[in-house]
Amino acid sequence: MPPPSKPNKFYFFYGKRKPSQNRPTVYGGLFSNRQTLDPQTLYAPRRKTPTSESPTNFSLQNWDPDAQNGLKSITPKTPSENFFQIAQRLSPIARYICDSFRKHGRWGAPVIADLGKLRRVKPDLVAEVLKVQTDPNLCSKFFHWAGKQKGYKHTYASYNAFAYCLNRLNRFRAADQVPELMHMQGRPPSEKQFEILIRMHADNNRGLRVYYVYEKMKKFGVKPRVFLYNRIMDALVKTGHLDLAMLVYDDFKRGGLVEETVTYMILVKGLCKVGRIDEMLELLGRMRSLCKPDVFAYTAMIRVLVAEGNLDGCLKVWDEMRRDQVEPDAMAYTTLITALCKGNRVEKGYELFNGMKKTGDLIDRAIYNALVESFVADGKVGSGLDLLKDMMDSGYRADLSIYNSLIVGLCNVKQLDKAYKLFLVTVQEGLQPDFTTVNPLLISYAESRKMDEFCNLLMQMQKLGSPVMDGLCKFFSVMAERVDRLPLTLEVFRDLKIKGYYSISIYNILLGAFYKSGQAKMALSLFREIKYSNLEPDSTTYSHAITCLIDLEDVKEACLWYNRIKEMGSVPSVAAYCSLVKGLCKIGEIDAAISLVQDCLANVTSGPLEFKYALSIIHTCKSNDADEVIRAVNELIEQGCLPNEIIYCAVISGMCKHGTIEEARKGFMVPTYGLGLYQGGMRDLTDDKCKRLYEYRVSNGSVIHVFMRPLRLASSPSASKNNPPLLASGSSAFRSMPPMLPVTRQLPGICHSCPMKFIRFQ
C-alpha cells in the first residue's frame, strides 16, 4: 500500500504591506498573518469532549447573574500595561516620544533632552503622539515645542489632532482657541476646523458652545455649507435654544442657500417642542414648495407634540397630513390614538381607530390596550368588553393588562361574577395573574362581606404559586388608604386571622393607618394584641408604637420600645425619632433628646431638617452671641420649617453649656433679637403669664429656670446686691407658678427614669 501523499504546501508572502500616507501602520491581513501548521496535529483525530464538559442549553430562568462559574475575573490593567498595548500601534519614533513622556511624567529638561536626540519631529508625528496622550498640559507643551523647530510649520492634521486631544481631555474651551492659534501662525482656519469643533460640542450637548463657534466662523469670514448649518441648528434645537437656531436660520436665508428637507424638519420639530404651532405650520407651507412631507415627517412631528402633551397640535398636524393626502401608517395611528386615550379624549381616539380598521391597517395591540383602559376609566365597561371581543375576533391574544383593566371596571359597576369569569380566562390562557389582577375582586368581596368567595380566591392564588401574604399586604394597603374603610378593614382582618391569614407586615400596615387617622389608642390595642400572638414585632412595629405612645404622653414606655429596637440592632423610623424627641423635650429631658438627634443623623440617610439645625445651633452657641443663634434659626425658617421643641431645647442646651443665660433669654424674649423664635410659635407665652420653658441641669447639679421674660435668677452670676434678681426662687410670684417638672438626679452611668441603657435622662 503506497504511503499517504503529503498535503500540498501553500506558499504565502509573510510580511506587511508598504505603509502609505493614509495608512502609516499596516497590519497583517488574511494571508500575511498565516502561521505554519503541523500536518500531524492537523490530521490527527480529535479528542471527544466529555459529556460533563459539553455545553448545555442555556436557560434564562435558571441563570444566576452573580454566579462566578466559568467567568474570568477581569483585573484592571496597570498604566504600564496600557501604555504597551497602545504602543504596539505606534511608529517607533512616536513610541520613543510617548515612552519619554511616561517615564518623566511631566514636561521638563529631561523630556526636552530626549526630544533633542531626534533629528526632526514632523507634523504627522506630532499628530500621532497627540492621539494617544492623556495629559493636557504635556500635550500643549509638546505641541508648542514642535512649532518652535527650525523650518517647521504645523499642518491641518496636527492642528486637528491638537483640538481633538484637548476636547478628549475635557479642555474644550482651550480647543475653541485653536482657530486663533492657526491664524496667528499664518495658517487661516478652514471650514473643516470649525466643523470639528461644532461636532465635538454637539456630541456633548453644549449648544451655547456651538453657537459661540458659529459666531467665530463669521468673524473669520468662513461661510458654512448647508450640512454644517443643519448640524448647528440641530444642536441648538436639541439643547433647548430654539431662538438661537432661528437666528442661524435667518443667516442661512440671507446667505442665499437653499433649504433641504432635513433643514425644515429640524426647525419644525423644534417649533413643535415649544408649542409654536402657527410658526410650524407656516414653515411647513414653505417646505411644501421644496418637497412634499411624507408620512415619516408627519409621524416625527406628532411624536414630538405627544411628548410635550400638546394634543391640539397633534390634531392640527393630522389635519395637515390629510390635506396633503398622505396616508398614515400603523406607527402614526398608534402614536396618536395612544396619546388621545391618555389625554382623556377616548372618543376621538376611537374615531381614528374605526378609520384605521376601514383602511385595513394592522392594528397594534397597544391601541386596544389604550382604548380599553380609557373606556374603563370613563365608566364605559361595555365598550371595553366589545373591544376585547373585536380584538379576539381579529386573531389577537389579549395580554394581562387588558384583563386587569376590565376586571377593575366590572368591579366598579358591581358585576363581580363577570369579573371572576375574566379572572378564570386569564388562568386558562396561562397569563399568570397576580394580586394586581385579583385585588379589585378582593376589595369588592370585602365590601360586600362575601368572605367565603374571598377565601376561595386566596386559595386559588395559592395554587397558582402566588405569595399570598405579600398579596394580602397589597390588599390591606389599598383598603387602609381610605379612613372611612378602616372599621371594615379591621373586621376583614379579624376574619382572616381566624383562618390563619395574618403576618407582622399586615399589623404594621394597620398600625400606621390607625395612627394617621388619629386613632392612637386603637393602634396601641393592636400593638398589645401582637404580644399574645406567635408573631415577633420588628422595628417598624415598635416605631409605630413609639409614635402612638408619644401622642398619648407615655414617654417612658416609648423609650422602652426604642431601647428594644436598638437591642435588635435595627434603626427606628424617622417619624419615631421625631416623636420621641418631641416627647423628651416636653418632659424637660434635653440631653436625652439631643443624644437622640445625634443617633438619628448617624443612622438615617437623610434626617429631618430641624435635627440638622439643632446641632448647628448648639455649635453656634459656642460663640456666646444671641445674634448668631437667631441668624441660624431664621435660616431654618427660610427653609420652610418653623422652630419646634428641639430647636428651643438646642438654644437652651447650647447657651447653658457654652454661653450665658442672659444670651439665651434674648433669643426667647426680645423680638429685635429673637425674630426667629418669637415668630415660630411662642406667642402664647406672654409676659404676664411668666411661664417657664424647660429645666436644665448644669454640671454642678443646680437647676436653671429659663423664662420668657428676661428674669435674672438668684443663682445667675450676674445677680448681685447692686443688681438684684427680678424674681427669686423664694418670692411669692415664684411660688404662684405652676409646679416644677420632676428632675431625675442620676449617678454617673445609672439610669433611674428608664430601665434600659440607651436613653439616659439627666
From TrEMBL:
It comes from the Eukaryota. The keyword Repeat applies. NCBIfam families: PPR. This is Pentatricopeptide repeat-containing protein. Keywords: Repeat. It holds the Pfam family PPR_3. Belongs to the PPR family. P subfamily. PPR repeats lie at residues 225-259, 260-290, 294-328, 329-363, 364-398, 399-433, 503-537.
